[in-house]
Predict the structure.
Amino acid sequence: MTTTAASPAPAERTSLRTWAWHAVCVVIGLVLLYPVLWLLTASFKSGEEVISNLSPIPKVFTPGNYTEAVDGVSGLTLWRLFGNSLLVSVGTVVGNVLSCSLAAYAFARLRFRGRGLYFALMIGTLMLPAHLMLIPQYVIFQELGMVGTYLPLILPKFLATEAFFVFLVVQFIRSLPAELDQAAAIDGCGPYRTFWHVIMPLLKPAIVTTTIFSFIWSWNDFFSQVIYLVEPETYTLQLGLRMFVDMDGSAMFGPMFAMSVLTLVPVLLFFLAFQRLLVEGVQTTGLKG
Amino acid sequence: MSQATAPPRPMPPPSGALPAARHPSRRRRSQAVSGHVFLAPWLIGTLVLTLGPMVISLYLSFTDYDLFSRPRWVGLANYRYMLEDDRFLTSAGVTLEYALIGTPLKLAAALAVALLLNRASRGVGLYRAAFYAPSLLGASVSVALVWRALFATDGATDRSLAFFGVHVGGFTDNPDYALYPLVLLTVWQFGAPMVVFLAGLKQIPKELYESASLDGAGRMRTFFSITLPMLSPVLFFNLVLEIIHSFQAFTPAFVISGGTGGPSDSTLLYSLYLYQQAFASFHMGYASAMAWVLLAVIALITYAVFRSARLWVFYAQEDAS
């Protein structure tokens, strides 16, 4: 990597190897990002061209796809779908951050009977397939009259059902020095004030990681939305995209891909803003993207 | 998991060692109360949305239930029917094929690229981020739609292959090949396990490589004698997680096949068939039984991987003692 080696020959070899390494990485990057690039360019192509033209550059530049995408599908404007998605995702983020840090604090710092058992239970639920709870949960929400509303999508997040995030915050709190809690106790803080005034402000990195992953996962989520949202007015972007698919015919291709691009914009913005943190967040917890 | 996550500094002592004030027993009691207060949301969630539903789902799996009338007890009929249900057997086979091809390819790609990126060089952060991006985008309907278009008959892949004289006749419309685009889509998302591998590679002490090079070990030798054994706990972790993930894949198969699992059920992943049974045919009892079989299979495979781990997973600490 260093180019200031003693003799010119090894230096040359090193720089050649570095170039080769960069070349390999760039090629892998291009292959991996090709589908995203394809999506971006397809969104500017006319319907027939999406299938017929292999070149990434549109023959007929069709920005009109985007106006059609904003008009939406079946009387649902893009803004409507966007707003619905945002509501679900923001609700999810708030719920996860609050309930998971509360539970994590108890697991990491408080001593009480049953804690070990609870913790084992929490770790156990990490591995459970969601299918197991799916039907009874649906029946419960149905009985409560909540099917068709956002509550089945948001309410569980306020009850710390995503053990991934509880575990993530537990790991983080464990890395904070215990002297903090002790100092707060000596100053007369009970657990509530210690949590809120001492721990919570220090949790910022863990909260940011939870926020990013909660947002992106719930934004991309399709399974629970397709099950619980039945009224078109409540549809999210993912369901809107699916409605495009149901309308067959290549004329819809352009607007459909334009809407796909717009749907990915928040994810991409989060990604660009926090890419370093995202990668580190995965590294330290083994979280899956 | 702890291999990849061990923080650099020693673990703080348990805070139970707090300098208890004048009333240790009162302090302990207040911790018990506040502990349950802090855990209240999680406790309610676990009881009402996890444990309760598990019990109900076990019960429903022995019943005939259509969501509208009362569940009718049928004993083992749901489980017995699986053996005669051709679509069930197909979906199990498709899922197994998907997991068996996809998981090794994905992990191999993740490991290879992690090794490539395991160097301090300019641009390495950028590459890491770029290779990780598909893991975040891949679960979305948008990307599934791209795949659908790329691998359709006369789509980009089909035409490119035809250019080289290979005539497949489309992927997503061809029962013989329709599963491969789905496999490719999961392999494309190798970024998440790659990042975990990278964390594992960082934990390997440099001295091992130095002494290996003094002993004149070549690259292959170093890889098989040092890197791979030292990485085996992380590999194990990734393997278990990826297996669990691949058994639960849903969105891409749903979007690409238009919800049918077609053509000719060639992309009927287990989750998709379960969804169809539960929310299209309202066979809630049968779908519950399918969920329990899924859990049993995942548990069995995880157990088998755990058992085999004794043979191939190497823990440095254990070895030292």
The first strand of chain B starts at residue 63 and ends at 64. Chain B touches chain A through 112 residues (CB under 8 Å). Residues 20 and 28 of chain B are 9 Å apart (CA to CA).
